[in-house]
Design brief:
Blueprint: E1 47-49, E2 52-55, H1 58-66, E3 78-87, E4 105-112, E5 123-129, E6 133-137, E7 145-149, E8 154-160, H2 165-187, H3 193-203, H4 213-222, H5 224-237, H6 249-271, H7 288-324, E9 325-327, H8 331-334, E10 351-352, E11 362-364, E12 370-379, E13 404-411, E14 417-418, E15 434-437, E16 443-449, E17 452-458, E18 463-466, H9 474-495, H10 505-513, H11 527-536, H12 538-547, H13 551-554, H14 557-569, E19 573-575, E20 580-582, E21 608-609, H15 610-622, E22 683-685, E23 691-692, E24 698-700, E25 702-705, E26 708-711, E27 715-718, E28 728-737, E29 743-752, E30 766-777, E31 781-784, E32 786-789, H16 799-818, E33 824-832, E34 837-840, H17 854-865, E35 868-870, E36 876-879, E37 882-885, E38 889-892, E39 923-932, E40 944-951, H18 954-957, H19 959-964, E41 969-972, E42 976-979, E43 984-991, E44 1008-1016, E45 1021-1024, H20 1039-1045, E46 1052-1053, E47 1058-1059, E48 1071-1076, H21 1082-1089, E49 1093-1100, H22 1103-1112, E50 1117-1120, H23 1123-1133, E51 1140-1141, H24 1144-1151, H25 1155-1159, E52 1169-1172, H26 1190-1193, H27 1197-1208, E53 1212-1218, ...
Parallel strand pairs: 2-5, 3-8, 10-15, 12-18, 30-33, 32-33, 41-44, 43-44, 48-49, 48-52, 49-50, 52-53, 62-63
Antiparallel strand pairs: 1-2, 3-4, 4-5, 6-7, 7-8, 9-19, 11-20, 12-13, 13-15, 14-17, 16-17, 17-18, 21-51, 22-25, 23-24, 24-28, 25-26, 27-28, 27-31, 28-29, 29-30, 33-34, 34-54, 35-36, 36-37, 38-39, 38-43, 39-40, 40-42, 44-45, 46-47, 53-55, 54-55, 56-57, 58-59, 60-61
Length: 1506
């Protein structure tokens, strides 16, 4: 509906109603009336007619269908409706939404709700109602269900009558759009409008209602307000999703974009309303004007629906042959444009493509994985080179041409071909990958955008994006590229016409004849030669036109003329087939006779321990791969064959939140309510009184309950009120007799693993202790449970012993299960959703029977912490366990202090990477005194207020002052504020500058500031503190610092603070660390700098990254090899081959390691800490095919990574990955990872962190999993120290809970965000393509960040950048040097290149998108000095994954050193290899400041223990 959700009639939902049927989610309109028996009057007698009855009254239809199903317990009648129509009182068919403007009635067949197949049970009725309400449900299921409600019942609309189908289908597609938008925003609420539209288009592409993906996007935009209103209504009634839709910026943009787009048309339509249908003045009331607009919109929607239908019919009639058939290209006709025959020869061995993929599955072409193919060539079964043109550009049946290929396969890197240089591509000259030969190629496609062309071909195994061809095959590909240029030249001709329809097919041919010979689209000056070329190569041209976004160009006369001439010329056609096909297991490529080469780049099956292999293998044997392919409707006569563009994962796009996210984690729900027992059981105490509770009630140790012995430490079952929930299991802490002589127990809830974050990955026998407790009567006990409080000796030396014990335990469990004996459970961890993890059991506090419950104490302490109260002297107060008193320095939430005239709070219009502009750090104040109130003020519960003196920050004065000042500097003032205590967010210290710590750490993690200047806010004057002003500074509490102040060696000074080298923790006291998937060493560097880690070994697969690690960690032993091979070699060396699951290939390569390598391998007992970030192609959306298959999962390196932890059993383990690992594969990878670590015996904690909040100038969201051995302390999450406009990330748990590791800092943090100017403002200017490795700095560092990054470096290294081609350089120069400028700011003009060619300055694919605000947003973008960098990627380029890559002031792409600084790498850090290698090392690294913050918390955890 177009009205707001609140305008609908709502009915409350009975929370106890549980039904297997889907219900309306928004209004839940069908669950609040009990179904009643009805008395059928004689007047309402039915008439039998074949299989259905006809009745005149709705009440009768309800009663008749009620008797056919057992739903008497339903609170309100729910029926199925088929063969229905909606009509007004005049019998005119009306759309569903018309009920808001008039009475609508129903005709159709009513059936029982739950019986889809028994149509004979239906009862037909005629014209009853009125319809009171309609609703859309099915959001969670992903398929919309339309409900309409009368006063008596709710109807699930299944199938409309034929006469009503077109009207209803339009409304159903609107509902589908709502559901798809819901799914996209629920998965990624921070997406952009562009990405949202693309995602919805991909989901709805199979609908017959739309002709193309562009049509779907246009439809979604037109329904923006409708979609917004439906999803906004979900916020009021739905509790199953976390996303807030009302203020979601993308949803609001969709609504507003549609409103502005249609405003003018609505006005015109409103003026054209038929007077007979218009609201008269007599009827005018509040909202009447709105109803006029509403009616006008409904009329416009009807016109839009009719126009879409006409468009589909027209398209069907004019292009039906093209839908069903593909015109075959004649090889003889195109031979003139190709070289003489030549053959493919390659002396190198190549691997069969089929070895890389699993065959035998029926798949959809759209679900195949994407790869890049470099140095490629195509040939036939005789190895003769063959043109791509002979292959169809759509999937066809019975192809009579066979084309194979060879090349170097690599990950999909976005390679393409530059339009301004036919001989170039974005691929490097030395592709890195594995040489393979392909199975038969089935189809190919061309896409173009801006100045790039992307050619992709498909086999039955995968899609391959083509990089640069081999030198020998290049002439065969040149003709294809030339034809693409011809097509683009035609596009340019058409775009220059004021009326495209004026330019006929003949006119285009003539203009092509007139091209200059140096034009790369030039064919000939002979019109016959030109026409021959265009027609024989017409399939390429037509496919490009079909994909072109401008409708007028797609349907221009030239296209119709070309298609007609192609059909006249060619007579052989291929039938276009459906998208599903069976992957075959034989490769007929003539290269198959060659033995496949063993390549280091091949995806090797992970080497694992048997424990890891068992956990993951058993899971995938139970939860087998699901068929994700939807069945194709057999009744579909014509199938739309649209190329679906895969959506890029834009990890740095986060929209602005509207409200403060003030929670760290959602608290767990209250304990399950037990169901009181009605059974009469004999219950008596067994034993003497052991003591008394704190309230004087007697304690007992044992009781007899219905013949069962229940004692302290026993585990009992309690039945719960909800019959759909499993019985609750509780651990008995103590038992007592209440004052009213009831026999009671107090117990802690034991949660099944499947009800935790583990889900289906949990062991069905493992229970987890929680801090939820309950007190119940003994008579409520339904039984007892066998539970072992499990404890295993920890350490690698006990590993074999534990393996034997666990094997016997599993065998015993299987035996009991086979004999149908009760399950024996075990418990070894405490699960705390509030803390986001699994912890060692508090064994010393369990089952004491003393009347003390630690969980109760925790709960009471939390309640006390939540209170804010004055102390007895009324001169201080306690809040969140922090004591505040006069003269303390405190943080204040900036929203409580708004000063006019200051830069603080002023936010200029921003773009994606300037969203931090205007965000404020906490205001530092000094608490002067407490003001006691006689009564609380409105909006506050506190009985007092606080009087505060404000300290200003440099950024409060100006951006220039902030840039040149220390981030810890403050300015004293005489400004005071009286605020409620809830404005205070913690304490800090303000010292004299000379009392600052002598050692300086980056990032800054201490809440310490210094002050030596006074700021007069009345005139903006800054001066030295007056001598008569006696300021009370914080006292130094660090005894060591005091000793240092008495004369210990200050080595150097800067103009901000004194600095000495940080205290070095002796390496023998640090954790001996093994870094796996080490990259260039960002994680290792940060952890070592924190003084907790000593990286002794590292494993890295890529040679340049491994070399960089060696250069920066010279004392570490670095293995540049496959971690699967290294683990196999280690287990062989230790004699544990029987516990190793690996491939023959891994074993052979392990055996080939030289003796020196083997002698330096780390061994169990030597490693204290393992860390790393295992790569997985699936996490980035690259491998979309069969990603749930066990054979694919076995190749995921996360299994090998976990196996290192299992085999070495270090004290600590840290896994880092992209945030998508939490949701990838429906969360199964994340769950299995945690389950594996728990099975090993570890404590586990999980969370998501934003690196930008830890002192770098870029958004970078990462997932982390900590594991600690049972005897160690799990590290806490580090506190974010910088404001950053990125929403906090919550991990979904079970039972509707979510966990956030840290608080979002958008609304305040100790320090401001780091800007682009802070990061790179001191670096010297360089030109496009700069390649000089070493150069001078030229200027001194200005910002504190620059000083930290530069350190003692004299020579600047790696300040080099990629070289743009001439056209891109011209575009870069034309992009304005102002914040947020990008391609839309380019002038609409042509430029002449040095080769004489004239090109459009605005890229071709973007020139027609000026009216779509989010299309290609950010491409060719310039950084904002006051903003932040985009997420660092492996290949910055203006049309790449992240298009914002131009320097704020200079005409070039950002340099390698600038990217490194944006990640927090100091200038002393070295990178290795070519430019692309260095960018890759930086883009894949963990930011060192984030690693440092994690290391500090690990260090604190170690100190807590020792």
């Amino acid at each position: 509906m177009d009205s707001k959700a609140g305008k609908q009639k709502k009915r409350s939902v009975d929370s106890d109603d549980v039904s297997s049927e889907r219900r309306p989610k928004r209004a839940a309109a069908c669950t609040n009336f009990k179904e009643k028996s009805f008395r059928i009057s004689e007047k309402s007698a039915t008439v039998e007619a074949k299989k259905e009855q006809i009745v005149a009254e709705e009440i009768v239809a309800i009663q008749l269908t009620s008797s056919l199903e057992s739903n008497d317990d339903q609170p309100r009648p729910n029926r199925r409706l088929t063969d229905f129509v909606l009509l007004d009182s005049n019998g005119v068919l009306q759309p569903v939404e018309m009920l808001e403007l008039g009475d609508i009635f129903i005709e159709g067949v009513v059936l029982p709700l739950g019986d889809d197949k028994k149509e004979e049970n239906g009862v037909r009725f005629q014209s009853f109602g009125r319809v009171e309400n309609w609703n859309i449900s099915g959001y969670e299921d992903g398929s919309p269900v339309i409900w309409i409600s009368t006063a008596l019942a709710d109807y699930d609309c299944r199938k409309p009558a034929k006469s009503y189908k077109k009207i209803y289908d339009f409304f159903f597609e609107k509902a589908c759009a709502c559901v798809e938008v819901f799914k996209n925003l629920s998965t990624n609420p921070d997406t952009s409008l562009d990405e949202l539209l693309a995602g919805v288009a991909r989901s709805m592409i199979g609908s017959k209602f739309f002709s193309s993906g562009a049509a779907i996007q246009e439809f979604v935009i037109s329904q923006g307000e409708f979609i917004y209103n439906q999803l906004a209504g979900l916020d009021e009634t739905a509790n199953n999703h976390e996303t807030s839709f009302v203020e979601n910026p993308v949803l609001v943009s969709l609504r507003d974009y549609e409103s502005s787009k249609l405003h003018k048309d609505l006005c015109n339509v409103t003026l054209g309303i038929d007077e007979s249908k218009a609201v008269t003045s007599d009827q005018l009331m509040d909202g009447a004007e709105y109803e006029d607009v509403k009616f006008a919109k409904l009329i416009q929607e009807e016109e839009f629906r009719i126009s879409m239908e006409q468009s589909r019919n027209k398209r069907s009639s004019t292009t039906s042959s093209s839908k069903k058939f593909y015109i075959k290209i004649n090889e003889d006709e195109i031979a003139h444009d190709y070289p003489l025959p030549s053959y493919y020869k390659n002396t190198k061995e190549e691997t069969d493509e089929l070895l890389l993929f699993e065959v035998g599955y029926e798949v959809d072409a759209r679900d195949l994985p994407y790869r890049t193919l470099h140095n490629w060539a195509l040939y036939n079964s005789d190895s003769r080179f063959i043109s791509l043109e002979l292959l169809p550009m759509k999937q066809c049946d019975e192809i009579d041409v066979t084309v194979f290929g060879s090349g170097v396969v690599a990950e999909d890197d976005g390679s393409g071909f530059c339009l301004d240089d036919s001989e170039s591509s974005t691929q490097s000259n030395d592709p890195d990958g594995m040489s393979i030969f392909l199975s038969q190629i089935k189809e190919w496609v061309i896409e173009f955008g801006a100045e790039m062309v992307f050619v992709t071909l498909r086999t039955d195994m995968a899609w391959y994006r083509l990089g640069k061809p081999s030198k020998k095959y290049a002439p065969w590909f040149a003709t294809v590229m030339k034809t693409v240029r011809v097509a683009i030249s035609i596009f340019n001709m058409l775009m220059m016409e004021s009326r495209i329809a004026k330019l006929s097919y003949g006119d285009v041919i003539k203009r092509l004849c007139g091209l200059e010979e140096n034009d790369k689209a030039y064919i000939s000056s002979d019109i016959l030669d030109v026409e021959r070329y265009v027609v024989v190569h017409g399939q390429i041209i037509l496919q490009l036109f079909e994909e072109y976004p401008d409708k007028d160009i797609k349907r221009c006369p030239f296209v119709a003329g070309l298609a007609s001439r192609m059909q006249d010329r060619h007579h052989t056609k291929w039938i276009i087939k459906k998208k599903k096909f069976l992957q075959k297991g034989m490769n007929l490529n003539p290269r198959r006779g060659m033995a496949p080469v063993v390549s280091r780049k091949k995806a090797m099956q992970a080497t694992t321990t048997r424990l890891v292999n068992r956990i993951w293998g058993e899971f995938y044997s139970i939860y087998s791969p699901e068929d994700s392919l939807e069945a194709i409707d057999e009744d579909v006569e014509e199938e739309e064959l649209e190329d679906v563009e895969e959506e890029d994962e834009d990890e740095e796009d986060d929209t602005e939140e509207k409200v403060l996210e003030a929670v760290e984690v959602q608290k767990s729900h209250i304990p399950k309510k037990s169901k009181a027992s009605s059974e009469d059981m004999k219950i008596e105490w067994d034993g003497l009184i052991l003591g008394k509770t704190s309230t004087g009630e007697p304690l007992y140790g044992r009781a007899l309950v219905g013949g069962n012995v229940v004692g302290v430490g026993s585990v009992v079952i309690l039945e719960v009120d909800d019959p759909d929930e499993t019985p609750a299991i509780y651990f008995v802490e103590f038992m007592f007799e209440s004052s009213d002589h009831c026999k009671m127990l107090h117990g802690k809830f034991l949660q099944r693993g499947s009800e935790t974050v583990l889900g289906n990955a949990a062991n069905e026998r493992e229970l987890f202790l929680t801090n939820e407790c309950i007190t119940v009567q003994l008579k409520d006990i339904k039984g007892t449970v066998i539970l072992e409080i499990r404890s295993r000796p920890w350490g690698h030396q006990y590993r074999k012993e534990n393996i034997v014990v666990d094997k016997l335990d599993r065998a015993r469990a299987e035996e009991r299960k086979a004999k149908d004996l009760p399950t024996e459970y075990y418990c070894k961890s405490l699960y705390s959703p509030e803390r986001g993890g699994f912890f060692s059991l508090p064994r010393s506090d369990m089952g004491l029977g003393s009347g003390f419950c630690n969980s109760c104490k925790i709960r009471k302490d939390e309640e006390e912490r939540s209170k804010t109260k004055l102390n007895e002297s009324k001169k201080g107060f306690l809040s969140n366990e922090i004591e505040y008193s006069a003269e303390d320095f405190v943080y204040v939430i900036p929203n409580y202090i708004n000063e006019d005239g200051l830069n603080t709070g002023k936010r200029r219009p921003s773009f994606k990477y300037s969203q931090n502009v205007g965000l404020q750090a906490f205001v530092v104040c000094q608490l002067l005194d407490i003001i006691v109130l006689t009564e609380p003020k409105k909006g506050s519960k506190a009985s007092f207020e606080v009087n505060l003196r404000r300290f200003y920050r440099p950024e409060d004065i100006s951006a220039e002052k902030a840039y040149a000042s220390d981030i810890q500097e403050l300015y004293h003032s005489e400004d005071t504020y009286v605020l409620p205590p809830e404005a205070i967010k913690g304490k800090c210290e303000v010292r004299k500058k000379t009392d600052m710590p002598l050692r300086r750490e980056y990032p800054v993690l201490d809440h310490i500031f210094f002050c030596e200047l006074f700021y007069d806010s009345s005139n903006g004057y800054l001066k030295q503190l007056p001598s008569n002003m006696k300021m009370k500074f914080s006292t130094i509490k660090d005894d060591k610092l005091l000793r240092e102040k008495k004369g210990k060696g200050v080595e150097s000074k800067t103009d901000s603070v004194m600095i000495v080298k940080p205290d070095e923790v002796p390496k023998e006291m640090r954790l001996a660390t093994l870094d796996i998937f080490a990259g260039c060493g960002g994680l290792a560097y940060g952890l070592e700098k924190a003084g907790v880690s000593d990286t002794k070994w590292a494993i890295e697969y890529e040679e340049p990254a491994g070399q960089a690690f060696k250069q920066n960690h010279p004392d570490a032993t670095v293995f540049v090899d496959n971690c699967n091979v290294i683990l196999r070699a280690i287990m062989e060396k230790c004699g544990d081959v029987d516990d190793c699951v690996s491939t023959v290939e891994a074993a052979e390569l392990a055996a080939k390691l030289d003796e020196n390598q083997k002698s330096t391998l780390p061994l169990p007992g030597q490693v204290d800490f393992i860390n790393g970030g295992p790569p997985c192609q699936g996490f980035s959306g690259m491998n979309r095919f069969c990603d749930r298959s066990w054979s694919k999962v076995q190749c995921e390196m996360i299994l090998a990574f976990l196996s290192f932890a299992d085999y070495f059993q270090p004290k600590y383990f840290l896994l880092e990955n992209v945030k998508k690992i939490v949701s990838f594969n429906n969360g199964q990878t994340f769950q299995l990872t945690i389950a594996s670590l728990l099975e090993m015996g570890y404590q586990v904690r999980f969370g998501l962190l934003e690196a930008g909040a830890f002192g770098i100038s870029q958004p970078r969201k990462r997932a982390f999993i900590w594991a600690a051995s049972p005897n160690e302390v799990l590290p806490e999450w580090p506190e974010p120290m910088h404001v950053f406009n990125n929403p906090g990330f919550k991990i979904p748990l079970s039972r509707g809970l979510h966990y956030a590791a840290v608080q979002n800092t958008k609304f305040g943090a100790p320090f401001r965000s780091i800007t682009v100017r802070d990061t790179i403002g001191d670096l010297p200017p360089v030109e496009n393509g700069e390649s000089e490795i070493n150069k001078n700095y030229e200027d001194v560092p200005v910002s504190w960040f620059q000083k930290e990054m530069r350190g003692n470096m004299i020579v600047l290294t790696d300040h080099i950048c990629k070289k743009m081609n001439e056209l891109n350089l011209l575009r870069c120069k034309k992009v304005p040097k102002r914040p947020g400028a990008y391609w839309r700011d380019l002038p609409d003009e042509n430029v002449k290149l040095s080769n004489g060619l004239v090109e459009k300055l605005i890229p071709i694919a973007m020139s027609n998108k000026a009216k779509e605000p989010n299309r290609y947003k950010g491409l060719y973008g310039r950084l904002d000095w006051q903003g932040n960098f985009p997420t660092s990627i492996t290949d910055p380029q203006p049309m790449g994954f992240v298009g914002v890559c131009f320097h704020p002031d200079q005409d070039r792409i950002i340099t390698i050193r600038e990217c490194a600084r944006s990640q927090g790498f100091p200038d002393s850090y070295e990178f290795s290899g070519k430019k692309k290698d260095k960018h890759r090392q930086i883009g894949n690294a963990v930011p060192p400041p984030l690693a440092f913050a994690l290391g500090r918390k690990l260090k604190e955890a170690l100190h807590l223990k020792y």
